[in-house]
Amino acid sequence: MDLLHDYLVRARASGAVFARSVARPPWGLTLPGSIQLSLHTVLRGHAWVWLDDPAAAERLLPGDLAIVVGGRDHHIADEPAPDRCLDHERFWAANTGAGAGADDPRAAVFLCGAYRLAGDVGRSLLQALPPMLVIRPSAHDQVHDVISLISRELTQPAPGQQTVLDRLLDVLLVLVLRASYQHSPTAPRWYRAAEDPRLARALQAMHEEPARTWSVPELAQLSTMSRASFARNFERALGQTPMQYLTDWRLTLAREYLLADELTLEQIARRTGYSSPNAFAATFRRHVGLPPGRWRQEIAG
User: Fold this and answer.
1) Residue 168 and residue 250 share a domain
2) 168 and 285: one domain?
3) Residue 46 three-state SS
4) How far is CA 266 from CA 32, 85, 88, 269, 284, in A?
5) Quick one: DSSP state of residue 6?
């Protein structure tokens, strides 16, 4: 099992290309912080992207990619000038598609995509990202290749085009998360730990079989380490003991099951390794602060 794949599947990551824009200067737009994760790439010309401070704007050239985590509005423009920025609805009404200006050499052509990630798993993936990240791939980088494919796909309408764009955006998200986590000090500790093939075997086992009654000696054997060496290396890499990690992962899954509201407490308890609903509820309340049913009511509203 690939841990990043497991997290993305459980986060129910879903994305879509929501605008291809052709804009002649002067132009600018503001995108709302309600978008959980935005991806922007320039296909022709340039664009500046920033959060609160225009002085900290980053310039995007063709092939560059910016990702922005939701929470705050962000801005894209031909110059880092807030007074040029329209709200996204007014901007796209005038600048999406081929439109006027498509043949103007001064016009920028850029693509915006959006992602939604659900639940605690999605939140943990987003929290590990910086508020804004700009990736400048080399000509032979996979990110550059995918952006080139998107650009070519958008040159003219074709059957199934939206499906192709959505799947390419899926690939782009995985590549972006990889690039971000590889270079970011805020990368999830499980991502770093999984780079050690010995620890990866133990992590994968817990993810594949969370209901199993795992013990440290069993996990150490899977990792081909002594019990003491495994426990020491695991805690150094992840900041918690193997059993603490297993409990946290089980409770993460339990919260996902509770929000989906498709299983009984007994079924959730069984899937997350607890002998009874009472044992599960006691652990849940001790770690989360509320009984499972009440937690679900408060979160679901």
Assistant:
1) no
2) no
3) coil
4) 41, 53, 47, 5, 13
5) H
